[in-house]
Every structure is written in C-alpha cells, then in structure tokens.
Amino acid sequence: MIAMNALWGVSVALSWMWGLGLFFSVQFSLQYGLFGLLAFAIPNALGLMIFGGLTKLIAHRGGNGPDALGSFFANWSRPYRLIFFLYQILAITLTIFALVRYGWQPLGLEPAGLYLLLTVLVILAAATLFGEEFDIRRIKFSHGVLGLIALVAMGIIYFQLPSLGTGQPMKTGTNPFLGMNFWGYAIPICVGLTLGPWLDLQQWQRAIQIQREGKSAAVSYLFGGSLFFLLLLAHGSLALWVAGQTGGAPMRQGIDGLAYGEDGIVRFFWAAASAHPWAFGSYMVFLCVMTLTTLDSGYIALRWYLSKSGGAARPFPLTLLPEALLGSPLPALVLAGLFTVAAVVLKLELEYFMIFYATFFVGYAGLALLRAFHTGQGNALPQVKMFCVGSVAVVIFAYGYFLENPWGMILGSVLPVGYVVWLLLKPGSAQEFVGGVEELESAVGGARGEIRGSEAGVEPGRVVPFPSGGVVDGHDPYGHFDGKWFVHSFVATYADTNSVGNVYFGMYAMWVGKTRELFFNRCLPKFNLKTTPYYILTRSFEHKFMRETREFERVSVKIKVGEYNRKFVTLEHQIFDSAGNQLGKGKQQLIFVSSGDYKLLDIPDEVYEAFVAYA
User: Fold this and answer.
1) Which DSSP state fits 178?
2) Which of 3, 314, 416, 526 gets the highest tally of CB atoms within 10 A of its CB?
3) Using a CB cutoff of 8 Å and minimum separation of 24, what contacts does 311-316 make?
4) Based on the domain organization, do 154 and 195 belong to the same domain?
5) 442-462, pLDDT tens digit by residue?
6) 385 and 275 in one domain?
C-alpha cells in the first residue's frame, strides 16, 4: 500500500513539473533569491497536497467506492469541458515551448530553422510513444523508472559542481518581502498555483485511478507534493549556484525590454560542456525527463478526456474522419507543436503563457472548487460572464507586467476570485446558480395552481409541458418531486383489474411507464420528437411484486435516477398504496441511440444535465 502510494506520488510530482515549474523556478530564483524560490515552491506544493486531500474527501462523501470520484468528476466537470481542454492544451504547449526556447535554443545550433522543426518533431513523437505505451494504470511504473533516472542525473550534477566553480551560491541580498515588485509576482503565484490542479486533467485522472486502485489520494498527493517541493528546491538552488559563479544573475533582455534568465543554467553548462560533458549531459537528461513525464501524462489525459466525449451529434465534415483520429490527442499535439515553432521564432517568453494561469483560469478554478462543496453538482456555469471577467483580468495583468506595475498584476490575479465571491454572495445568487432543469421548468410553469394559456400554439411533435395546477390532496396530478423521487399518484379502477378483482400484474409495469413519461416531460420540457437527434430506448426492465391492490385504491408510483455512466441510465421505481404498504419495486435501464441511424450514443448533454439534478 505505502509503496504504491509512493509510486503514485512520484508520478504526481513529475507530471506537475511542467514548463512553468521547471523553468520559472529558475527565473524567480534569479530575481529574488532564496525568498523567491520558496515563494514559488511552497504554494505550488501545497496546491497539490490540498487537491489530494479534498479529492479524498469528495470520494468519501460519494460513498468511497472505486468509482465514487470518477462519477463525481463526470457530473461536476461537464460545465467546464472546454476550460479543461484549453487548460491542458496550453499546459502541453507551454511545456514544449519552454524546453525548446530555454533548453535547445541557447545551444545555437545551425541551421536553426531545420533543427527547430526536428526538435519539436522528436518531442511530439516521444510524448506520443510514451503516451501510447503506458496508460494511466501503468504510468506510475514508467514514472518511477524515469524519476530514478532524473534523481541520478541531478546527483551527478551536484557531484560535478565543485569542479565547475567556487561552490558559492548567489547572495540573497535585501529581503524582497519589503518590495511591491516581489508581491506583484508572489500574489498571482499563490492564487494561480494553489488553484491550478483543479483544472488539470492529468491530476484528476490520477486521483480517480488512485481511488479505483483502493489507494489513498491524500497520501499519494502528500508524498507527491513533498517530492515536487524538493525537486523545485534542487533546481532553484542550482540556478542560485550558477548565478554565484557568473558574478550575478545570468539574465538577457527579451523583446519587451525586460530581463529573463530561464535559460541561465543551460547557457552555463553549455559553455562548460567541452570540459565537463557529464554535467551538461546530466542536466539535459534531467530537463528531458521532466518534460517527457508531463507530456506523456498530458497525452494520456487528453485521450481519456476526448474518448469520454463520444461522437454524438458531430457535424457532417467530421463524420468523414476516422473515429480513432477524432478521439485522439494527436491533432492537439500537432497544434501545440506548430504554435511552439511560431512562438520560438517570434521570441516569446514563458511568462506570456503564464499570464493565463494567473488570471483567466483562476476564476473557473475557484468557481469549480466552490461548486464541488457549496452548491453541489449539475449547476449552470455563467460562461459569458466568466469569459469576460477572465479576459479583462488577462489584459489588466498584461498591462501591469509590461509596464512593470505590480498593482496591475495583483489586480489582474485577484479580480476573477473576487468575481466568484460576488457570484456567490450577491442578491439573487440562488437564481444565478440554478441548474438547467429548474431554469427550464420556470419557463413553462407559473406559481402552483396557475395555468398559462400559451399551449394552443404548440408545434407538432413537441411534448407539451403540463401545467402545475389542479392540486388534489397535496399532490399534483401531473406528478411532483419529493426529494429526488418523482411521484405520480392516481386511483386504480375496474379497467386495471382482472377477473378476480385484484389489479392485473401487467398494469404495474404500465403504471411505471406512465410515471416515467411524466418524469421525462418534467425534466425535458423542450423535447421535440420531430427535431430530436436521439431517442431514449429501454434496454431492460425488472419488477418485484410484493403486495396486491384492488380497484379504487389510491396508488403512488415513485421513480428516480439510480445510477448512470457514459452510455446507460438506470431508473429505480417503487409502488405504494394509500396505507404506505410497498406493492413492488424494480429498475430499468435506458440507452440512447441516434434518431438517424439508431447508432448507440453517449448520454446526450441535455439529458445528462436534466437528470443529474435528481441523481
């Protein structure tokens, strides 16, 4: 158990050591010394540990079964699908760019254009190869081996340091905590990196797999966060040592006139490569291992995420492409490679990518985290508002960064968090956070007892939403919700009985079917049989008879969503008489097929969002 948790911890640490952690730790260490290194490393490591602990809590709250966390993620993540995808694509692009820009470009190989294309190609090929070879179940073993290689490489580097220089690191100098420039970086770092794992597909896939294997996500992420902190400390300390040998921080001027030093270690070891090839070679091995263990994780996570999306309702041109390609991360990786080539040619910097993690994604991550515990699952996401706030935050931060104004950087990073707090606390926030089902229901029915007179113009094929009027004995004749159960009550009559006077056995299934139709109509009031791209079919039905009933007995049929996955929904039902005696119970399984060719589909989005509120 401990050994497996430790292996998962190694994979967690290596997958989180992407371009941002790997190279910005050098930059921030050179700018602010040991203070800067710790200010960058501590929230980074804490973000991982907190993520592991809270996902363990979420799994425990969901029953702590093998798929408790996976089921939660499937429901909770649906409003954030595009954000998860963009976050992962940008992380992969940033990592490839950082390795090329700060690990390869300082070598000055000519012809630069040809070597650039070859270098990007080999990085993409290696990521794809390892991603295809090691799935999420086996990645902990490959990362265990690669982590050992990285540890040996770092050991060789530190063993070689006395022969490379005086061994004196750069002096820390004045305390940066007293300057606003430091806080202009430190606050966005704390905000962005602490919330970062919540939108990272790699970390969610790991946490889900750890739960499925019966291991502890909290323990694995505690170990992984600790190891990650040590890796950052070792790399940042190496940058400080290099600065001590060169008489100052090895910085260069970027196209924006600001100083950058992410490639300072590479340039130092490359200059000494002829005399100390082991040191240079070991450092390049370390960089390649750190990059590879992020990119193969990203490949596996994207393949997992894209395969879950299925092929329902794709537009015509995409249906001509192979299904394997549409569900593959390869197009995304190719796009990341092309963007990397363009960014390197334009001489962009790592910080340009980082701006989005300190601003745009912060609001989504904060809202997602709060929704996991505050308002529950299945809530609508104010997409337009969040996008606008995130975009404004990016612009404010960018102005602050390029004008070297720390207040602009701080404002840009805290603005999305402040807006999330406003969304939760502002008047009418309960209406803002309603799910899709409640929002649709409010559009078709007024207050209880009020019938709206707009049904005469209903188009053919549309299911008519029933008015919520005519209440009898406290029950709506068209059904009502009692917690997560949808309840339909009626009186059995002579037509329901057989020759001996008790209710015919087949009527119980008929009653369940009628209640199911009312349940569907309540959850999906805008369903249109003429234009629907899918049909809902019954895969199986079972019922256990427990008691009999007779004519003129009041009967209540209760139905709810029991469980679901990508393809199937299981509905549970119970039947009671007026005395509260249970007449029977059972369940049925639903599938979804294309209305065009009856091909099996994943659960359609509108069905998923409508049902999940009652699951």
Assistant:
1) G
2) 416
3) 311/601, 311/602, 312/533, 312/534, 312/594, 312/601, 312/602, 312/604, 313/533, 313/534, 313/604
4) yes
5) 333 333 333 333 334 444 444
6) no
Considering the domain architecture, whether residues 279 and 413 belong to the same structural domain is answered as no
Q: What is the pLDDT of residues 527-552, one digit of tens each?
A: 777 778 888 899 999 999 988 888 88
In a domain, 453, yes or no: no
Q: Which of 305, 323, 351 is the last residue of a domain?
A: 351
Is 50:365 a contact under the CB 8 Å cutoff?
A: no
How far apart, in Å, are the Cα atoms of 591 and each of 72, 99, 182, 378? Answer: 21, 46, 56, 21
Amino acid at 64: N
Q: How many CB atoms lie within 10 A of CB 373?
A: 11
Please give the pLDDT value at position 324: 60
Residues in the chain with pLDDT values less than 70: 1, 167-178, 308-327, 374-381, 427-476, 612-615
Which 3 state secondary structure label does DSSP give 590?
A: strand
Q: Point out the domain boundary residue: 302, 323, 351.
A: 351
Q: The domain that contains 568 carries what CATH number? A: 3.10.129.10
pLDDT computed for residue 247 by the predictor: 75
Question: Which contacts of 384-387 are long-range, i.e. CB under 8 A and separated by 24 or more positions?
Answer: 385/419, 385/423, 386/416, 386/419
Q: What is the span of the domain harbouring residue 367?
A: 359-433
The set of residues, in sequence order, having a beta carbon less than 8 Å from that of 219 and lying 6+ positions away, is: 2, 5, 9, 52
State in Å, rounded, how far the first CA of the chain is from the last one: 33
